[in-house]
Amino acid sequence: MAVLSRCSRAATAATTRTQTATATFSCILRALSPSFCSSSALNSETDLSNKKPAVLGTLKREPTGRNVQWVFLGCPGVGKGTYASRLSNLLGVPHIATGDLVRDELASSGPLSSQLKEIVNQGKLVSDEIIIELLSKCLEAGEAKGESGFILDGFPRTIRQAEILEGVTDIELVVNLKLREEALLAKCLGRRICSECGGNYNVACIDIKAENGRPGMYMAPLPPPPQCATKLITRADDTEEVVKERLRIYHEMTQPVEEFYRSRGKLLEFDLPGGIPESWPKLLRALNLEYHEDKQSAAA
Ligand code: AMP
């Protein structure tokens, strides 16, 4: 913690906000990543093609006790939160969703809250500086609790964020979740959150018929348990207009991040075949984690 406090003080003295955020982030990630200075299992020479990231060949099948540093990319509504949180439980590492950090800040009526509300409710991206500041605080709190490793969800979302992250830690693997465009909007509009426990549910029933040689796709609703059913809320940015803007911004600002990691041989493309029962076992297989597949799919 002393190191972190020193870093924070040094960062405060830095001349620009960007330098401040970067310096703090750097120190925190360095503290989290013992292998920060060592050479990576994956580097830009390892695999520049669009094959499976080389790290997958070296993963242990026994998932617990692994110190992973993974990122989940994908359009709004694709299910990053669902699968990142399941993997976080399976692997015993924190799931850090920057969207949740932003919403916590919004709810806190802190100094940033009114500024953030306008940006988020219009479906725009929060500035890189603010998001790195929120992420740094979260990592600092995790470090104080003895956490290490992470699954990032919703970060990085710009090339600049990706460059900062790449400069301070060694991301092993980036999972790029993909879902048919026609399902994304419906999934966002159907999303419901329990205002008490924070559980995520979905009332949408997606049933895309097979057409022109493309297979159909069925995704069952994910209903809340009875204790949550009367406490459901909808995110303010899950309206049709705002979701369309978030999708547009994803294509403009975040899609280039896919190429950033693809060119470094870290990107695993994963097309979701349907809902959780079909997708979760396939994702585990793609991650070479099939060892626990049966137990987990039974829990889906
Ligand atoms: P999400 O829950 O991931 O959909 O994020 C909700 C909102 O939080 C986004 O629409 C952005 O306004 C903001 N946000 C989350 N993560 C980031 C990020 N990495 N960079 C900029 N803005 C973000």
How are the SSEs ordered, and which strands pair?
Layout: H1 2-13, H2 17-32, H3 55-58, E1 69-73, H4 80-91, E2 95-97, H5 98-107, H6 113-121, H7 128-144, E3 150-153, H8 159-168, E4 173-178, H9 181-189, E5 191-194, E6 200-202, E7 206-208, E8 217-219, H10 226-229, E9 232-233, H11 240-262, E10 267-271, H12 276-286, H13 293-299
Parallel strand pairs: 1-3, 1-4, 2-3, 4-10
Antiparallel strand pairs: 5-6, 5-9, 7-8
Helix pairs in contact: 1-2, 2-7, 2-8, 5-6, 5-7, 12-13
Fold and architecture overview:
With 300 residues, the chain is an alpha/beta fold. The chain has a domain at 68-93 and 148-287: Rossmann fold. 48% of the residues lie in helices and 13% in strands. The protein contains 13 helices and 10 strands. A hairpin with a 5-residue loop joins strand 5 (191-194) and strand 6 (200-202). Helix 2 (17-32) runs parallel beside helix 7 (128-144) and helix 2 packs across helix 8 (159-168). The structure holds adenosine monophosphate. Adenosine monophosphate binds next to helix 5 and helix 6.
Strand coverage percent: 5-15%
Number of strands: 10
Q: In CATH terms, what is the fold-level topology of the domain at 68-93 and 148-287?
A: Rossmann fold
The whole-angstrom Rg is 19 Å
Topology as a string of helices (H) and strands (E): HHHEHEHHHEHEHEEEEHEHEHH
Fraction in helix: 40-55%
Q: How many helix segments?
A: 13
The gross shape turns out to be globular
Q: Tell me the CATH superfamily of the domain at 68-93 and 148-287.
A: P-loop containing nucleotide triphosphate hydrolases
Label the CATH architecture of the domain at 68-93 and 148-287: 3-Layer(aba) Sandwich
Reading side by side through the largest sheet, how are the strands ordered?
Answer: 2-3-1-4-10
Q: Extract low-pLDDT stretches.
A: 1-26, 28-50, 293-300
Largest sheet composition: 5 strands, parallel
Which small-molecule ligands are present, each listed once? adenosine monophosphate
**Measured distance between first and last alpha carbons:** 39 Å
What is the arithmetic mean of pLDDT?
Answer: 81
> What would CATH call the class of the domain at 68-93 and 148-287?
Alpha Beta
Structural class: alpha/beta
